[in-house]
Write a structure and sequence with these properties.
The chain has 264 residues and is mainly alpha-helical. It has 10 helices and 4 strands. It is globular and about 50 Å long.
């Protein structure tokens, strides 16, 4: 029975992916766009799950990483000629990861509701900066840019039609899911789960978590793991952005605009 579980899982996974591949071919335009939107926000949910679900750290500022990833992608699309999707993707990831590392340095020293409140405060700070720094960010009007082509130089170049966008987002979601699944099943993923189930054990630096967890952790190592969880979770968030590609990046490709509302 146990040997059959992976087969059942991967069979179901393949069927779902096949249905999603075929969906833009059979669904009306509105519902095809709706499915694409679900995939984009599902990618953001996967990134949040690393921090909230596996590490047990509730964050109210995850939307800031999503929005800042979009801004990072938008800046590259506006400054490069011709616009490069892959450069925008990299910029969105780096922008979100850099900001997350800064936020994690302060917020992961706190726990429970204090951590959540700190992430909310940082989110509002970023919102105010982006809303008021109109010379750089466009303020409330935001930044408007042209959609980049889905291209590999010397091989192919495709315009982002709704169908191409759907398949591109689906490929990003599937690859991100497989990567995050591997991460959560790795020793690092086990450490994140240990932090969630043993939180009382590392309140004092001189103690070790003594529970049923197979990966005991000290206070210092838990701080590093929590910081890594926050940064990696944030780096996954811009994947969904509108035109770069994880949520914030994929959203960039769909919307061709980013504004301060992306932070909230």
């Amino acid at each position: 029975m146990r040997d059959r579980q992976p087969l059942v899982f991967w069979t179901g996974f393949a069927i779902i992916v096949a249905l999603l591949i075929a969906s833009p071919l059979v669904l009306p335009p509105f519902w095809a766009r709706f499915v694409t939107e679900i995939l984009i926000w599902g990618l953001l949910a996967m990134s949040s799950d690393i921090l909230i679900g596996y590490t047990g750290m509730v964050s109210f500022g995850h939307s800031a990483f999503f929005g800042l990833g979009m801004y990072g992608a938008a800046f590259v699309l506006l400054e490069t000629k011709p616009p490069s999707l892959w450069a925008a993707l990299a910029a969105g990831l780096l922008a979100a990861a850099a900001v997350a590392a800064f936020v994690a340095y302060f917020s992961t020293r706190l726990r429970e509701i204090y951590f959540a409140i700190t992430t909310l405060i940082f989110s509002q700070i970023f919102y105010i900066v982006i809303f008021t720094w109109t010379e750089l960010t466009g303020g409330e009007n935001g930044l408007t840019f042209s959609r980049p082509a889905l291209a590999i130089p010397g091989l192919f170049s495709l315009r982002f039609t709704p169908m191409v966008l759907h398949w591109f987002v689906l490929a990003i979601v599937v690859l991100s899911y497989l990567l995050l699944r591997r991460v959560t099943q790795s020793p690092f993923g086990m450490v994140l789960q240990s932090i969630r189930v043993c939180s009382p054990g590392w309140r004092v630096c001189s103690t070790r978590c003594r529970t049923s967890s197979p990966h005991p952790i000290s206070c210092s190592s838990s701080y590093r793991a929590r910081s890594s969880s926050t940064t990696s979770s944030a780096a996954s968030a811009p994947w969904s952005g509108r035109s770069s590609a994880p949520p914030s990046s994929c959203y960039c490709a769909r919307a061709s605009r980013v504004s301060s509302q992306s932070i909230t």
